Amino acid sequence: MDDMYIGKFLDDRYEILEKIGSGGMAVVYKARCHRLNRFVAIKILKADLAQDPDLRRRFHAESQAVAMLSHPNIVSVYDVNHSDNVDYIVMELIEGITLKQYINRKGILNWKEALHFTTQIVKALEHAHSRGIIHRDIKPHNIMILKDGNVKVADFGIARLLTTQNTLTQQTLGSVHYISPEQAKGGAADARSDIYSVGVVMYEMLTSRLPFEGDNAVSIAIQHISSIPLQPREINPDIPVGLEEITMRAMAPNMSMRYQSASEMLADLEDFRKNPSVRFNYSFIPSMADDEDLDATRTVPVKGVSQVERARRRVSGNGAVRTKTTPEEYRKNRKRSGSTTMLVGIFCIAMLLVLLVVFMWNYIIKDLLMQDPEETINVPNFVGSMYNDVINNPDYLLYYRFESPKYEQNSDRPEGYILRQDPAEGRRVTVTENKIPITLYVSAGQKEIPMPDLLNMDYREAENTLRRLGLDLKINTEGRPHDSYTPDYVFEQIPAKDEILVPGMQVYLVYSLGPDVKMVKVPNLLNLSEASALQKLETYGLVGKKIEEYNDTAQKGRVFQQSIDEETEVPEGTEIEFYISLGPEPDTPTVPNIPDEPDTPDYPPYTPDEPDEPDVPDTPDTPDIPDTPDTPDTPDTPDEPGGGEPGVPDNPGGGDDGGTVDPNNPGDGEMGEDEGVQPSG
């Protein structure tokens, strides 16, 4: 059982990580909620108890009732479920230690620290009792201390499940140290039973000792019924008297002498906090069972412990059960019985005298002997009266100053009905010039409460919001698919926002389960054309995406691969990639050189591109212009100096001079060769 769940999932949501504790009926694990991404504590009902269908039914009923509690000093219950033959509760995970561990580590607690813890425990009980839930197993083991010093009470209502499974002798020793007398007798437990257990916890915090010790559960239970513990101040004189009085009143064996409600005890704790020197002057009368003739130190009562007596009529020194009595033992018992009866009679007479003296001292002698300059009176009972009648009563106005009333919604009492008062009835207070301040808690009646807006709120938070209204609404939740709302969030509420709610009304919350996803199978797209593939995917409610690639084996323009294999189930609307063949990859060996282009910045020739302009010098072809030197023909004018022989050059054909180049006129000869001009004959 210890490790069989570690690493497993419950309801496809809670992953069990490690075991963190174990109790009489369940094992506690640390788990992760993957839906809300948070750590939780999961309490799994033990397998042997899970075989009992009635216990399983009550397990769920009790847990669901506790889930209605919402208080900063109570461990929250998130979920109650049955999955894979496992019954479990999902709770808030508390990072801290138990009060029992703290006491064992520190020993006697400072009374201020004990007051701080007790106040929070009683506040948690006040909230639970107002919802009709009794804890039945208050003990330091069930009280968690957080890192900030606050406390949270765990395991509300769980102890009730064991009442039909275990007898007193089977209960664990840890619980029986804190059990109330009526529970030890096998009787019914109510809110006052929790208060008794709180008193024992206070006793242990203030003294670092338990009020009753024994070798077994039976002997301890008997002491709760028949014995009176040492006063806490006898163990720890540093305890203020007022706090000791609160502790011992909470632990009164007689239920009628205890605090009748957590609110009443809380009022005394608050008065003590304001004034640690206050004294409540409670007179504690050790109360045995009705009509019992027992002394205060006897540990085995004749009546009222039927469960124990039937199991162990007589317990010997070593704990063995004896069922027969010899004649000698009978005579001794008769003699001892007579002596005991006489002692009990003497004790009872002495107790009556003590009580008479105490009564006369408190109510007669003390007032006569003590010259108290200050007038004191007992606070009357205002509870049950109407507020206007009280504050307008001239007799009350002589002594009391009524503070602003504290209104509380209450469907059982009419508006103006006084529910509680502070100070409580019978409290002896001093009359001052400013009169005695009185705070009255008044019923506001049943006001019209509108339905809050719960849309787009986690349905569990919405349930808690409704429960905090105090109308005992019948809350029904249902999950449905929704495309727009986040899973677990409310998208429909009945009644609608601002409609008036009445106590016991049926309320319906519909929350999202996420989109209604339809699963489809991926079709085969191989060898289809692009158009056919897209059309086929559309028919199946899927989206296609084309990717083109070269492929040596597939026909060009046909699908040769798809991103998700056929017959695979996917949500409708999923995108499927399919690959279209471009045919074989072309053989272009130069193509691989293309990536070399980025190296071109290394080529220096690109910088000389500017000198391309020097091509302009090609224009020097114009030097052909020098052909103009033909103009030197003009030197023919020198013929003038020849006088009468100007005609000689005009007849080159005459004589040998016809083929000779005139050195003075080389252009003629060269010209004849270059240009192919034939000389005239």
Strand content: 15-25%
Read across the widest sheet, the strand sequence of neighbours is 1-2-3-4-6-5
Unreliable stretches, pLDDT < 50, 5 or more residues? 161-172, 285-327, 637-661, 663-681
The name of the CATH topology of one domain is Transferase(Phosphotransferase), domain 1
The CATH superfamily of one domain appears as Transferase(Phosphotransferase) domain 1
Helix content: 25-40%
How far do the termini sit from each other?
Answer: 143 Å
Q: Tally the beta strands.
A: 25
Number of helices, where a helix is a run of at least 4 consecutive DSSP H or I residues: 18
Annotated CATH architecture of one domain: Orthogonal Bundle
Tell me the radius of gyration. 54 Å
Largest sheet: 6 strands, antiparallel
| Broad CATH class of one domain | Mainly Alpha
Q: What is the 3D shape? A: elongated
Give the mean pLDDT.
76
